[in-house]
Amino acid sequence: MTRFVLKRLAGAALVLLALSVLVYGLFYLAPGDPARLACGERCNPQQIAQVREQLGLNESVFAQYLHFLQGVFAGRDHSTGTSVVHCDAPCLGLSYQSDQQVTLLVLERLPATASLALGAMAVWLLVGVGTGLLSALRRGGATERVLTVLTLAGTGTPVFILGLLLLMAVCAHLQWLPFPSYVPLGEDPEQWAWNMLLPWITLGFFESAKYARLTRSSTLETLAEDHIRTFRAYGVGERSVVTRHALRGAVPPVIAISAVDLGSMFGGAVLTESLFGIPGLGKTLIDGVRQIDLPVVVGVVMVMGTAVVLANVLADLLYAAADRRVVLT
């Protein structure tokens, strides 16, 4: 297992390196001048040139990329005007707009995205796995047909439409909850939970449809295997057959995909964060792209890429732990 993890981590490092090169390339192909945006609309050409020199934009693309890699692995001093800001490793650079360390900016926004992703995962596992299991056990009946319709509705409803419907129904019409306004967990845990409830339901319900279909198909496949029929022939109770044997075969793929989806949520919840005003990584990335703030864009993309890569490694490990027939090589 150690050899497998080391090999996957080495591959992950190459993937992240290629991702950083791609982001840098796309940035320089995009229209706009980050020096002009950082300086402001009233700056004259001389002031813009001075800002470009302060930001290091007068250097070649290759030199700027090497500075970025140097900051990631060893840290470096970044000069801005007359001040020098020390950036310890790992350092993702300084924002062109706020002159803030991107590492600190990411760490500031990461808890909001992490809380959204973990809460949504709890929803999609409870709703998706429960719905899929019930649908498989009630195969051919009215319950299965109703659950199938709900699953198809969840699959075909865009996340922003579902979020808007929940806001209008729960907050505007029924007035069960106030309109969400993000509150950090450390400030007020109760208000944090109430304000995150609708985002969790929105993102979790959207993903739960996939898990309902996956759980249903895996459970039906497991229930059709020979050893399940043998247990039933020996008089083993249906509840024991389902909970102790059928679920054991249906759970591994759900665990593996959950780990991958959890990693993807760190970059795939942009619409949910924007709709509910959650100051997470997705919103930070959109703001960085709009302002042509290369250090912020690269830093957030690298963090998101790292989350996805590590989630894939974790998914393989969890799958092997849940299914002893899988051998890691």
From TrEMBL:
Chain segments annotated as transmembrane: 114-137, 149-176, 192-209, 254-276, 296-319
UniProt entry tagged with the keyword Transmembrane helix: yes
Main localization category: membrane
Domain ABC transmembrane type-1 residue range list: 110-319
Protein topology in the membrane: Multi-pass membrane protein
InterPro entries documented for this protein: BPD_transp_1_N, MetI-like, MetI-like_sf
Gene3D superfamilies: MetI-like (1.10.3720.10)
CDD domains: TM_PBP2
Compartments it resides in: Cell membrane
PANTHER family: DIPEPTIDE TRANSPORT SYSTEM PERMEASE PROTEIN DPPB-RELATED
Protein family membership: Belongs to the binding-protein-dependent transport system permease family.
Protein name: ABC transporter permease
